[in-house]
Amino acid sequence: MKSKLVFVTTYPPRECGIATFTSDLIHAIQNKMDDSIAIEVCALENGRQELEYPEEVKYVLDTTQKESYVEVAEKINADQQVKAVMIEHEFGLYSGEYGDYLFHLLVVLEKPFILTFHTVLPNPDEKRLQIVKALASKAKRILVMTQHSKELLLADYHLAEKKVKVVPHGTHLVLWKRKETAKERFGISHRPVLATFGLLGRNKSIETAIDALAEIRKKFPDIIYLVLGKTHPGLVQYEGEAYREFLEEKVRQLGLENNVQFVNHFLELDELLDYLSITDIYLFTSKDPNQAVSGTFAYAMSSACPIIATPIPHAKELLDDDTGILVDFENPAQLAEATIKLLGNDRLRKRMGRDAFHKTRFTIWENVANETMALFRPFIEHSNFRYRIPPINLKHVQHMTTDRGFIQFSDIDVADLESGYTLDDNARALIALIRHYEITGEVSDHKLIETYLDYIVYCQKKNGAFINYVNYDGSIHLRNNAENLDDANGRAVWALGYFLSKDGFNKRFTDKAELCMQKALPELQNIRSPRSMAFIIKGLYYYNLRKDDQNIVVLIKTLSERLLDNFNMVADKNWHWFEEYLTYANALLPEAMLFAWKATGNISYHIIAKATFDFLLSKIFRNGQIRVISNNGWFHKRREAREGFGEQPIDVAYTIMALDLFYKELGESQYLNKLNIAFDWFLGLNHLNQIVYNPVTGGCYDGLEQYSVNLNQGAESTISYLLARLTLEGYYQHKRRKTSRPDFHHEQLQELIRKANREGQ
After folding, report:
1. Of the residues 115, 145, 166, which one is the last residue of a structural domain?
2. Could you tell me the CATH number of the domain that includes residue 624?
3. What is the pTM of this model?
4. 325 beta partners
5. Is residue 94 part of a domain?
6. Which of 11, 57, 184, 341 has the most beta carbons within 10 angstroms of its beta carbon?
């Protein structure tokens, strides 16, 4: 049975900021969670209105009628599937003194609810104070969008700190766009662009920007100022278009007809983001010092616009010298001076836009949805709380791939060609694209597969070993002479063996790969690095599926015995591992031992594989989440505390691939459960509640730090996510994640022991 959440709010097609906010939040939640959670809406109307609502609107509340509050509460109470309610609050939304009609709903409502304050005013009078405290006493949690609002609730309204949580206003996940390229589509590539958007109202003080523009034009005669959005319907109802007409007349008086453009309609999201992509400076000129938050301001920052803003609390909290400039309320001279400064300094302006883009990444709707659902989680049945799995998306893979191979690094989501290529990345990419082809049958995958295979061949030296680093122009990088390349060689063997284990590829491809593998084999017995040997064991296992060569089995045994020797030298009753520390790619080692058992039948390898893997899982899975070993500090045998932050997607992906193998071979439900938890790390089930996979680009962020996400989407991270996502594809049955038989491993292990005893007799 589905769990339902009900949002009490204004809602489209009603045109207001809270309606847009809630619609964006609900759609983000629906995109994040699978179909086991349903979102329903109770739409607020000021008197009965004839509006055509979308299907999620199941209730309509006339805020002017007390009995409507009671009726809606009773209907929500009667639905057993409704687990909790979210109430969006602005004092003007509800009738009565300071909106106290809302209590007619709350005294009847039996479901737990969370309340979001969109405005928190300082220095409340006694009536407002008592209303806010009464609302807080009934709510499970109070949400606000800025730290300033939280501080007001604690200081002026005396709420308990544990009751109030800051969840920022959401923003849309956009591509990192080059503004000049975007301007060309609008035919204004030569003109500097200023912009303001939102429902037009007198508090926006657009006249301040128009007055400033008269001075700005003296320095930049081609300047254009876009005033985006229709007049607020509430203002039209009160005074018609008087404010817009006043602004248009001011434009005429100042002779700015060629410099100001009014776009007089409600902007849908795609159109809005297009306009923001061409905006050089966003002007926020509100004259209301108590405006707690602005969605338009947040959207502009997240679209990489440097901001010039008046000092509302939201602006003071987000803006600093790196992201914009604050100016006084209704001060055209300051606004003009700041605008001229930024337009005259391309480097500063672009850096501010980039910093604004980075600073607002934590506020994207996907992350706000994660934060919101984390608050609702205690009220939702555990079996219904599941993330929706994103569709497979190769867009960023294709963008990062040239005719030579997969580019190593990216600048946000733009390939950094100067970073060149690595064997590490192209070997992983070859495996990922083979898996993708097996699942989808996409013929276009063959071109990518050939590209990555050719790169591996290009990196092979005459003695059969491999280099790792190649410059963009194809020249060999000097780093190959200064670094240990054993891991890269191991990855090459893994990729070649995996490729050669598959059917359906052009003979020209397979002959090339076979020759490459044959040249590599004589060098492999000399490698002793644990992870390098583990990669090689995996590659040889796959290679021998078709070769069935006892010499390959002997080589697998040689390498596996070395890993076993490492284990015997280091392990004790409390430390079941191959080394005295856990470092990178840890899951690879027990996975390789399980592959060694599959290749040789040696049950010792099976036992060590399970013991070490279960030990690793006990260290990286805590409190229903995975937290892999930090790249900023290893986990040492003789130290109780783990060091540092810095979780890498590649370590999560390797863990998922190992969990897949252990579940398929051993059948224990714990492995499938942890596989799902580990994949959800990419979707926000991590210590920051932030996405690591970017569903717009198809790329994956480069790491999860203590307080932020590294927004670059390089080869290692992007391919790692793809490998994890392709692994998960095998666990779908009718679009639901697969469950398991917990008794399977016990039965299988008993059979293995019986088989070993028979062979030993």
Report:
1. 166
2. 1.50.10.10
3. 0.90
4. 308
5. yes
6. 11
Res 1: pLDDT: 78
Q: How far apart are CA 255 and CA 219, in angstroms?
A: 15
190 lies in the same domain as 135: no
Residue 282 bridge partners (DSSP): 195, 307
Residue 94, phi-psi category: left (phi > 0), alpha (psi -120 to 50), beta (remainder): beta
Give which of 679, 694, 582 is closest to 625, Cα–Cα. 679
The two three-digit tokens of residue 149, written as one number: 């609002």
Residues 680 and 610 in one domain: yes
Q: What are 512-521's contacts with CB under 8 Å, separation 24+?
A: 512/453, 512/454, 512/457, 513/453, 513/457, 516/456, 516/457, 516/460, 517/493, 517/543, 519/460, 519/464, 520/460, 520/464, 520/465, 520/466, 520/489, 520/492, 520/493, 520/496, 521/464, 521/555
C-alpha dihedral, 588 to 593 to 599 to 605, nearest 10°: -170
Using DSSP, state whether 314 is helix, strand or coil.
Answer: helix
Same domain, 528 and 629: yes
**Angstrom distance (rounded) from CA 31 to CA 29:** 5
- 253-267, 640-654, 727-741: the lowest-pLDDT one: 727-741
| For residue 57, pLDDT beyond 80 | yes
The answer to whether residues 548 and 404 belong to one domain is yes
pLDDT band at 15 (very low <50, low <70, confident <90, very high): confident
With vertex at residue 423, the alpha carbon angle to CA 420 and CA 425, rounded to the nearest 5 degrees, is 80
Question: What is the CA angle 260-265-268, rounded to 5?
Answer: 110
Q: For residue 522, give the amino acid letter.
A: P
**Residue 148 and residue 184 in one domain:** no
Residue 733 pLDDT more than 70? no
Q: Would you give the distance in Å from CA 23 to the centre of its chain?
A: 20
Per-residue pLDDT reduced to its tens digit, 203-225? 999 999 999 999 999 999 999 99
Classify residue 156 by its DSSP letter.
Answer: T
Structure tokens, 353 = 């836009």
* Residue 265: closest CA among 183, 201, 194, 199: 199
Identify whether 352 is part of a domain: yes
Place of tokens 């926000």: 684
User: How far are the Cα atoms of 119, 248, 322 from residue 317, in angstroms, in the given order?
Assistant: 15, 33, 13
C-alpha angle 63-12-35 in degrees, rounded to nearest 5? 105
The Cα–Cα gap between 382 and 40 comes to: 20
Higher-confidence residue: 720 or 180?
A: 720
State whether 272 and 160 are in the same domain: no
Strands 703-704, 709-710: pairing kind: antiparallel
Residue 524, amino acid: L
Task: Give the CATH number of the domain where residue 233 resides.
Answer: 3.40.50.2000
- Is 390 part of a structural domain of the chain? no
The two structure tokens encoding residue 563: 């890993």
SS3 (DSSP) at 84: strand
Q: Residue 136 and residue 150: Cα distance in Å, rounded?
A: 13
| Nearest Cα to Cα of residue 171 among 360, 23, 316 | 360
Residue 373 lies in a domain: no
H helices present in 12-125, as ranges? 17-32, 66-78, 102-106
Same domain assignment for residues 141 and 198: no
What span, in angstroms and rounded, lies between the C-alpha atoms of 456 and 444? 20
Q: Are residues 463 and 593 in the same domain?
A: yes
Domain residues for 260? 179-363
- Evaluate the CA torsion angle 731, 734, 735, 738 in order and state its sign: negative
What one-character DSSP code corresponds to residue 577? S
CATH number of the domain that 45 lies in?
A: 3.40.50.11930
**pLDDT score of 180:** 58
- Give the count of domains, the chain: 3
13 cis-preceded (ω within 30 degrees of 0): yes
Give the strand order in the sheet containing 407-411: 407-411, 414-422, 469-470
Bridge partner list, 581: 636
Q: Which residue has the tokens 């806010």?
A: 132
